[in-house]
Amino acid sequence: MLRTLASLAAAFCLLFTGACSAGPAPLRDAYRPHFLVGTAVNTRNYADENSEEARLVKTHFKVLTPENIMKWDALQPLPGQFDFRAADRLVEFARKNQLYVVGHTLVWHNQTPDWVFEGEAGRPPTRELLLARLRAHIDAVLGRYKGRVQAWDVVNEALNEDGSLRDTPWRRIIGDDYIEKAFEYARAADPAAHLYYNDYRLESPSKRAGAVALVKRLQIAGLRIDAVGLQGHVTLTQPSIQEQEDAILDFHRAGVKSMISEMDVDVLPSTKAWGDADIRLKEAADPAFNPYVSGLPPEIQSQLATRYADFFRMYLRQRDKIVRVTVWGLNDGDSWLNEFPIKGRTNHPLLFDRQNRPKPALQAIIDATKESRNAVR
Ligand code: XIL
Questions:
Q1: Pick the catalytic residue: 53, 203, 245, 262?
Q2: How many separate helices (H) and strands (E) can be counted in the chain?
Q3: What pLDDT digit, counting tens, does each position of 293-312 carry?
Q4: Which of 157, 180, 184, 245 is catalytic?
Q5: Ligand 1 within 6 A of 68 CB?
Q6: Which atom of ligand 1 is nearest to the CA of 153?
Q7: Measuring from atom 16 of ligand 1, which residue has the nearest CA?
Q8: According to the model, what pLDDT value does residue 374 have?
Q9: How far apart are CA 74 and CA 68, in angstroms?
Q10: Does ligand 1 lie within 6 Å of residue 156's CB atom?
């Protein structure tokens, strides 16, 4: 009924005023009965509330993840000196527009200032000192945004490909339990917040097993973890839908929900392993690796749409195990994949193009919800 009214209104708008852009139906509305949809945002996306980008954010998405401004280097660049200005603006934009925010991220080995891992006289800090810094950071940040940032990526990318714990300063200085400590401090600082572990390539069986083990460790320690974020940096061909679905099922069996936290579909060639999102990776520029500078050819555009739809059909099938799907950027011009792992390329991994026009992929994932409605009937 509501849907009929909405389409009547849209038809009226087109016929009699000619003023309204027809555009696709809001993505977030299509997915409202199933799971939340979100986007990563940079500060330009919402600097002007009336810009086209801000309008797209508000229309199509319900959850925002700040792409950079809640990382440690942005929030506490110097010991004890917090800079909340940018994060405050984001949180205010979200509040005004009734959007949720996922804080990204509390504990990571990247985008963390050197001072965090420095002690006296050029030596590393003691375990106690680094734990105190971690607690102070978490207390200050979660304390400030209590009730306004609903969820946190507590620990980011702590695992190696073989499922073992990554060798990072956090682990070297504190020990393996730095993960438990981070969850403990976050839970204490904001008991109502949802807390996540987030990583890339969790579709790979060995890494996935490591993540399941990590979830179990937290549970045994009596710490609640609400979901695992599969970053979902995929390509046109890898991983298979089945591999990602298997990961979601494994996490479900371990007692946690999944989310796709940073989805994008890389359409450019690369020599790195699919899904490897280690931001320190760099590859040399080569024009052969940048084939779509003047636009995405229609056949690749349609492959991209099919690929997105295939994933979202699976998410719909597993909707009881999925909290949210977030795309990592609003439009193709914003995407970090224009700079990673090769600088200065023209990638096309998202749902809106460089002119903020919806791509066929957007319509394809909206249409996927109609198929699933028919299937249920
Ligand atoms: C990326 C941002 O998109 C870039 O703007 C920044 O230069 C580097 O970090 N995994 C993560 C994200 O968890 O924080 C990373 O974001 C992409 C990989």
A1: 262
A2: 13, 9
A3: 999 999 999 999 999 999 99
A4: 157
A5: yes
A6: 13
A7: 67
A8: 67
A9: 7
A10: yes
Specify the residue for token string 């401090």: 185
Which of 336, 338, 339, when mutated, tests ligand 1's pocket best, judged by the most ligand atoms within 8 Å of its CB? 336
Residue 262 bears catalytic tag = yes
Tell me the mean pLDDT in the region 151-165.
98
Percentages (nearest 5) of helix, strand, coil residues in the chain = 45, 15, 40
Report the separation in Å between the CA atom of 377 and the middle of ligand 1, taken as the mean of its atom positions. 41
Nearest to 347 by CA among 264, 276, 286, 285: 264
292, 346 Cβ separation under 8 angstroms: yes
Average pLDDT rounded to a whole number, residues 145-168: 98
Alpha helix locations (H) across 120-168? 127-145
- Residue 81, beta-bridge partner list: 78
Is residue 128 among the annotated active site residues?
no
Length of the chain: 377
Ligand 1, pocket-test mutation among 39, 64, 67, 72, most atoms within 8 A of CB: 67
Residues 52 and 124: their CA atoms lie apart, in Å, by 47
Residue 181 · residue 134 · CB < 8 Å? yes
pLDDT, tens digit, 9 for 90 and up, residues 16-62: 433 455 578 999 999 999 999 999 999 999 999 999 999 999 999 99
For residues 9-20, average pLDDT: 46
pTM of the model: 0.94
User: Closest ligand 1 atom, CA of 277?
Assistant: 18
* pLDDT value at 186 more than 80: yes
Residues 6+ apart with CB under 8 A from 185: 134, 135, 138, 139
- Ligand 1 lined by 277 (C-beta under 6 Å): yes
Res 263 pLDDT > 50:
yes
Instruction: Determine how β-strand 227-230 pairs with β-strand 63-66.
Output: unpaired
Measured from the CB, is residue 336 less than 6 Å from ligand 1?
A: yes
Main-chain phi, psi angles of 182, to 5 degrees: -65, -45
pLDDT of res. 251: 98
Pocket mutation for ligand 1, best pick of 41, 68, 109, 231 (most atoms within 8 Å of C-beta): 68
Residue with tokens 């919800």: 369
